[in-house]
Design brief:
The protein is built from 13 helices and 10 strands. It has 412 residues and is mainly α. The protein is elongated.
């Protein structure tokens, strides 16, 4: 049974007491008593409680995963391109990774930025009938992974003795190949025990925003419909007063009733000005702005309402682009040093010079393949020896060297 935070069983977010306890537990310097599950559970609840956070997460993930992916072989000693054998090995690794279906979980790997860690448990085939490959995999919820020095990966999987028991049992991983683990600490170098990723930094703001939304809803419920007051003359009989109250009850539904013609109805506007509504609105926008600055590196809410908004907008877009390229570097490292390297070691041993193929995301400008093909044709016709790797990049086609033409003279 997965861990359930007691403060989230009946509420979208915990109370202040639960949050303080979760932070203390995650920051416990004693690894034997440290428990990061309450904090991680709260972090994973934030995008469910706040659709703005979910939208920011989705935007950043799509910015990362929308780039095309490419493979890269190990470079030859003293050379600039990969050997044919290494290129083929890289191509085979790419095929095995794609065929196992794990590429559909890459968005989950990217969530390490927000939750602090994510993991995919990998089971490799024995290679009895071919190459070692990922035979099956299981995506692990962030709350079911826990730091553990006894595990070779640095994290163990959390299990429980009974379904109704929340006392965790850590099951270490015996081999690095068994877990694709992505971790992210935005406070690295300043606070080593900082679990929860980027979302930990917006918990307090999100709780204030969430509470403000409920206050706003209650405010609208109370004051959104104007009060209706009926005045009737002194000495009115009880049956007449009952008719008036029935009219008031029906007014919000169909606004139709029969009442004495000497009864006066006043509709009072409780919201004489928009000051109260604007107070809620400004507060929510301010919180959303801070969330967006942390998660996306920009501020869409406020950047168009201030002096110099165009320059501010351009600067924000640059910051977001920097976030994107930093995410690409992290993602390439997670995949290259774990899945790609594991596949290579299991199937081919240690590569030449210890350099493994690298998972690479293509960030080059879009190529004009038709124009490049004409240039390549001219260069080839002029007798230039062209690099097959570069031809492949410039045209989008997989190319191979043509076999040498047979020597007809030697046949006779």
């Amino acid at each position: 049974m997965a861990y359930q935070h007691p403060g989230l069983r009946n509420n979208a977010l915990p109370n202040v007491r639960h949050l303080k306890a979760a932070i203390r537990s995650a920051d416990d310097p004693n690894p034997r008593t440290r428990d990061i599950r309450p904090l991680v559970a709260i972090c994973t609840a934030l995008p469910q409680a706040d659709p703005d956070i979910l939208g920011f997460m989705q935007t950043r993930r799509l910015n990362l995963l929308s780039w095309p992916r490419a493979r890269g072989g190990s470079p030859t000693p003293g050379g600039t391109s990969a050997e044919a054998r290494e290129l083929q090995r890289a191509a085979d690794i790419e095929t095995r990774i794609r065929e196992c279906g794990i590429t559909s979980e890459f968005d989950a790997v990217a969530n390490a930025l927000y939750f602090g860690h994510t993991g995919i448990e990998l089971a490799w085939s024995t290679a009895v009938d071919g190459a070692h490959r990922i035979e099956r995999y299981e995506l692990i919820d962030a709350v079911d992974l826990h730091p553990d020095a006894a595990s070779i990966t640095g994290y163990s999987r959390v299990t429980y003795a009974r379904p109704d028991d929340d006392k965790m049992i850590l099951v270490p991983y015996a081999a690095r190949e068994n877990l694709l683990l992505a971790t992210y600490n935005p406070m690295k170098g300043g606070k080593a025990l900082y679990y929860g990723g980027l979302l930990r930094s917006v918990i307090w703001h999100t709780m204030l925003k969430h509470g403000n939304l409920y206050d706003w809803a209650r405010f609208n419920e109370k004051f959104g419909d104007p009060p209706v007051i009926a005045r009737y003359p002194v000495g009115a009989q009880a049956p007449d007063i009952a008719v008036v109250f029935e009219f008031l009850r029906l007014l919000a539904q169909d606004s139709a009733a029969a009442i004495p013609d000497d009864v006066k109805i006043d509709i009072i506007d409780a919201l004489k000005s928009g000051a109260n509504i604007e107070t809620f609105d400004r507060f929510i926008d301010r919180i959303s702005s801070k969330q967006e600055r942390i998660l996306l590196g920009q501020d869409v809410v406020n950047k168009t309402t201030e002096v110099g908004s165009n320059a501010k907008s351009q600067e924000a877009n640059k910051t977001t682009a920097n976030y994107n390229f930093a995410d690409i570097e992290l993602f390439q490292t997670w995949l290259s040093e774990q899945v790609v390297a594991a596949d290579y070691r299991l199937n081919y041993g240690v590569p030449p010079r210890g350099q493994y193929p690298r998972f690479r995301i293509v960030t080059d400008e879009g190529e004009d393949y038709e124009r490049n093909a004409r240039i390549i044709e001219r260069l080839d016709g002029a007798g230039w020896d062209l690099d097959p790797d570069e031809i492949q990049r410039k045209t989008g086609f997989t190319v191979k060297r043509k076999p040498a033409a047979p020597d007809l003279d030697a046949a006779f």
